[in-house]
Amino acid sequence: MKIKDIRAFVEEKTQLDLSKKIRKREYVYARSIFFYLAKKYARCRYSQIAKEVKCHHATVLHSLNNTIPIIFNEEPQLKSICDNFLNLFKEEIIADSKTKKDIISQNIDLKIRLSRYEEAEKKNNKVKVTQNTIDSRFAKLIEQTPEDKLDDLYITMKAKVNMLKAQWKDKITVYSSYETVDSY
Fold first, then answer.
1. Per-residue b/e over 42-68, b at no fewer than 16 CB within 10 Å?
2. Which alpha helices (H) appear in 15-75, and where do they start and end?
3. How open is the CA angle 163-164-167, to the nearest 5 degrees?
4. Residues 83 and 24 in one domain
5. C-alpha to C-alpha distance for 50 and 55, rounded to whole angstroms
6. Tens of pLDDT along 67-83?
7. Is there a single domain that holds both residue 83 and residue 129?
8. CA dihedral 133, 136, 141, 146 (to 10 degrees)
9. Does 69 reside within a domain?
10. Tens digit of pLDDT for each residue in 12-52?
């Protein structure tokens, strides 16, 4: 969703020019509605939103923290503008979010496939190239992992790979606090 589309929608519904520097309640409330919708659906930074209506980012922040709760509690007509926005543009908003997630997922998948392909090509193993470019399950797992837990995932996966690569011996030595036990 583009910030200009949100501004046009709010200006059309309120019949006010949002960039006018007027402190009348209807202008303050209209700009607040615009700030709220832009932050929520255009996913813009405060500075981008402020630049659109020629104000300071602190104005946007203040409005979202202080004016929007008043509008939602005491101005049902203005709150309905937000509700109407969601109803009118629901499909477009959902399509935008799905597209971004799909693109990120595809990008991760393609990067993994490319690195596997290059690695297998260095070894000149065509069978390995085909096998390594098929599976994208790991890319999806990595994508779903919170960023602060990626190191933990890496350590766990590395340990698992080392365990799978290890060759087990027939003889196992078990150490206890008292003595060594050999089993055959």
1. bebebeebbebbebeeebbeebbeebb
2. 25-37, 46-52, 57-62, 68-74
3. 80
4. yes
5. 5
6. 999 988 998 888 888 88
7. no
8. 80
9. yes
10. 888 998 888 899 999 999 999 999 989 888 888 899 999 99
